Each structure stands twice: as structure tokens, then as C-alpha cells.
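#lab-general

N.A. 3:47 PM
ok so I finally got the sequence cleaned up, no stray characters, all 104 residues accounted for. can someone with queue access submit it? mine expired

B.Y. 3:52 PM
send it over

N.A. 3:53 PM
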Amino acid sequence: KTMNAIRAQIPATADLKVLSTEDSGTLVFSRGSKVFVFLNNFAASNSDGSTYCGMALPAPKEGMEWVDALGGSELSTGSTGCVEFATTGPVVLVQKPVLATLQK
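B.Y. 4:20 PM
back already:
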């Protein structure tokens, strides 16, 4: 249900882009500039979460922030500029208004 709602917001003509990362065990792709999908082949029991280096997210639009539409995984960018999540599961980042995430 969630994925269909996200897909419905993306124009069918939006470019599919695969973003290269430094780890062959990770995959990041986007449709347009509104949705970024992060996948990996890390063990689910990995308590270190997942890190995606070698790519950068665009800055969110003013008043918006990137949030995980699937599970609310926290996004952080480490001091190395890598994108980091507390989970090894799939992450789908979308932009939501900052106030919407404060109301949760």
C-alpha cells in the first residue's frame, strides 16, 4: 500500500538513475529527484545498520526533510559524508514537511 502511494506520485516518464556506491553490497536508485531507494545484502542481524558511501543526496527543498517512508529509519550523514541508517532493511526516502515529522 505504501509503495503504491509513493509510486503514484512519480511521473511515469521520470528518469531511473542508479547511483554508484563504494560497496558492491549496496544499491541506491532513484526515480526523478523525489524518491531514493536504498538496498543492501547485509545480514538482518547486523546491529551496525547500513552505510552508503560514494553518493550524496540532494538537499531537501525548503521546509522539507528526507524521511524513510517504510519504517521511519533515522537518516544521518556521517562525518565522512556517507548516508547512514540504523537498519539493514530496505529504505525508501521521500521528502515530507518538517512539521509533519514533528507531529509524530
